[in-house]
Specification:
Shape: elongated
Strand content: 5-15%
Structural class: alpha/beta
Number of strands: 14
CATH class of the largest domain: Alpha Beta
Largest sheet: 5 strands, mixed
CATH architecture of the largest domain: 3-Layer(aba) Sandwich
Strand order of the largest sheet: 2-4-5-7-6
Radius of gyration: 42 Å
Helix content: 55-70%
Number of helices: 24
Oligomer: single chain
Length: 676
């Protein structure tokens, strides 16, 4: 509801009536002077009307104030003086609040509540100054009582603004109310308890109030509870209820504020009410602001999580789209490598293979970074020989090192070199460190990989090079994602700058650490990987097997499904060359049709198909036959692999597919399926 849309004349009339009747009630309690009451609700009503309806309703204040004083004491001239003071008081307070305290929204922020209190204390000096001066000049007030009348008048107006105005403004902003459940039930219960305590303290029916025990502050926890748990509206309502009960009880001579002088008793009540009102409203505004901040943060968190999910989905789709074209390239390389005997051709094929593997590694690095950032990296620990892993990595990278004329030495002297680690991730750490050393070491340089045991149950693996070294400023950012040092390095050496960041995170995930050291530019660098050792496993069988299972000599009937025609064609040729019978399909419908006409020993299927998914195809075939399955996909997140395995696939290979990995997977699948 917008109060500013109400026609001006009706608004002025209603305000004048409200001011008149509230003023009559206030002056009924006046004792020090007929025109000065310690209880003056009209001041709060006037300020609320000006803030809600605008300055256009000021005549309502003037008319109401004139009538209430003209019918009480003095003359028309003194009533005009008092009405002028009351009107100027309300207008000046409203202007200052609009200017410095957010107007009618002032109870949304606790600093504005304190500004509101200061404005009320200052502007309420206007009315008694003008009004009382008019009465003194006209002879209707004793100059010797000027101070007592002035304080009563000022404090009555101040309390009226501090107690009544918040109640009227907060209910006036949103006048409609509907019961909304637990929070409103709590508010009703709390206000009922406050009313009961008010009767206990000020009602006079109990000894605690009739004997004037100083116990008004037992009501404070209820107001504090309302401020912390409920809305500003409920807090303002509680303050009005408590003020009304305290005023009513004190007038009847009950409660802790009753003293010999009736006017002083009411002044004490109003002071008590004003302090309680400001304290409770400030707390309530602070808690409301905190709830808004929490809601904003929650909304931002939800937005960020949604953005993260979108990013992850994008990376997953990107990896699929980037990996899929690499598979036929790798398959074609395998075929060409088997057919050619020219050293130059083999060198060219080797160069192509290295660059394809580099592209695949960049994709894997992006996905690993996403998993680490979302704490979804899954490690499968086993007892490993770290020295063997180092030697394996050295052999993998030796060709690249030889091409750059680098000397790679190993000095593995650690006595304890067995660790509990994820085999693939440990190899990835050492591979990243060695590739980093090869990348930043000029020709004829030297790289040394050494190991040692600086302490019991501690293994250190160091990769030391004679390369370009690391600047002190770059050293501080060395392990940050996408950090590549100077811009000239980025242009010269390329890459995404993810290897070291991923390696450090993987080392920490293994309970270890990875640190870098360099004496400066062109003085080489040393990366130290520290891990905890364990006792070597006994009677462990080799994880690699060169024996051919019973099934390896039998041609398999394979249903190959991939919507990427080049990938499907290249894999089909390689599988046929190895003696298998292959039926190729490019979508789910044709694959189901082919499976309905023939029996197959093995399904090799892409996950993403144009008219369905490999998971649906696997579920369909498993319901009909006991065919085994190998999933091939550009989607390589942990969730993708888990969904494939849950659907019935025995293996999940991530593109690009190397024929040796595919053969190993086929061997494992057929071996598991063979009868004992």
């Amino acid at each position: 509801m917008s109060w500013r849309k109400i026609p001006t004349l009706p608004a002025i009339g209603v305000l004048a009536l409200l001011y008149f009747f509230a003023g009559k009630f206030g002056l009924h309690l006046a004792t020090v002077h007929k025109s000065a009451s310690p209880v003056w609700p009209p001041a709060g009503i006037a300020l609320a009307a000006l803030l809600l309806c605008g300055y256009r309703v000021w005549p309502g204040i003037f008319i109401g104030a004139f009538l209430v004083n003209a019918t009480t004491a003095g003359t028309a001239l003194t009533s005009l003086g008092i009405a002028t003071g009351n009107t100027l008081e309300g207008i000046s307070a409203a202007w200052l609040i609009n200017r410095y305290a957010q107007g009618a929204e002032l109870f949304e922020h606790y600093p504005d509540v304190f500004r509101f209190a200061l404005i009320a204390l200052a502007t309420t000096l206007v009315s008694p100054l003008i009004g009382l001066t008019s009465l003194v000049v006209a002879g209707f007030a004793d100059p010797h009582q000027f101070t007592a009348i002035f304080v009563t008048w000022w404090l009555g107006d101040t309390t009226g603004i501090l107690v009544v105005a918040p109640f009227a403004i907060l209910w006036g902003q949103r006048p409609t109310w509907r019961f909304t459940g637990q929070r409103d039930a709590e508010a009703v219960a709390l206000l009922f308890v406050l009313f009961a305590l008010g009767l206990l303290v000020f009602g006079g029916k109990f000894g605690i109030s009739s004997q004037n025990f100083p116990v008004p502050f037992i009501c404070a926890p209820i107001l504090v509870w309302a401020a912390f748990r409920l809305s500003q509206r409920a807090t303002a309502t509680g303050t009005v209820i408590l003020t009304a009960l305290a005023t009513w009880g004190t007038i009847r001579g009950f409660g802790p504020f009753v003293v010999a002088n009736h006017n002083q008793s009411l002044l004490i009540v109003q002071t008590f009410s004003a302090i309680f009102a400001i304290t409770a409203l400030a707390l309530s505004a602070g808690m409301a602001e905190r709830r808004r901040v929490e809601a904003t943060l929650e909304q931002q968190r939800a937005t960020v999580e949604a953005a993260n999910r979108t990013k992850d989905n994008f990376l997953a789709m990107l990896s699929h789209e980037l990996r899929t074209p690499l598979t036929p390239v790798v398959a074609a390389l395998d075929a060409l490598d088997a057919q050619t005997h020219s050293p130059e051709m083999k060198a060219s094929l080797s160069m192509i293979r290295r660059n394809v593997e580099l592209e695949s590694q960049l994709i894997d690095d992006l996905l690993d970074l996403t998993r680490i950032a979302r704490h979804k990296l899954q490690l499968h620990f086993d007892i490993l020989d770290a020295h063997q892993t180092v030697m394996d990595v050295v052999e993998i990278c030796r060709g690249e090192a030889n091409e750059q004329k680098l000397r790679v030495h190993t000095n593995l002297r650690a006595g304890a070199h067995h660790i509990s680690a994820d085999a693939a991730k440990l190899q990835q750490i050492i591979w990243n460190l060695l590739k980093n050393a090869i990348k930043f070491t000029p020709e004829d340089g030297e790289i040394v990989i050494s190991s040692g045991n600086p302490a019991p149950q501690v293994l250190e693996i160091k990769v030391t090079d004679t390369g370009i070294g690391i600047d002190g400023e770059v050293m501080k950012r060395m392990f940050d994602p996408f950090e590549q040092g100077d811009l000239s390095f980025q242009h010269r050496y390329g890459g995404l700058g993810l290897g070291l960041a991923i390696s450090k995170s993987l080392a920490q995930a293994h309970g270890g650490s990875l640190v870098a050291h360099s004496e400066g530019p062109n003085r080489g660098s040393t990366f130290t990987l520290t891990l905890h050792t364990v006792a070597p496993a006994k009677d462990r069988q080799a994880t690699r097997s060169t024996t051919t299972p019973a099934e390896s000599g039998r041609a398999l009937r394979i249903l190959l499904v991939d919507d990427h025609v080049d990938t499907c064609t290249a894999l089909e040729r390689l599988l046929v060359r190895r003696g298998h019978l292959v039926a190729a399909a490019h979508d789910m419908r044709s694959a189901m049709s082919t499976a309905g006409r023939s029996e197959f020993d093995l399904l090799i299927s892409d996950i993403a198909l144009p008219d369905g998914s490999g998971i649906e195809l696997m579920t369909y075939l498993r319901a009909m036959t006991k065919v085994r399955g190998i999933a091939i996909s550009g989607f390589g997140m942990n969730g993708d692999i888990e969904r494939s395995l849950q659907a019935g696939f025995a293996e999940h290979l991530v593109k690009p597919i190397k024929i040796d990995k595919l053969e190993a997977a086929i061997q494992r699948v057929t071996t598991e399926a063979a009868p004992a």
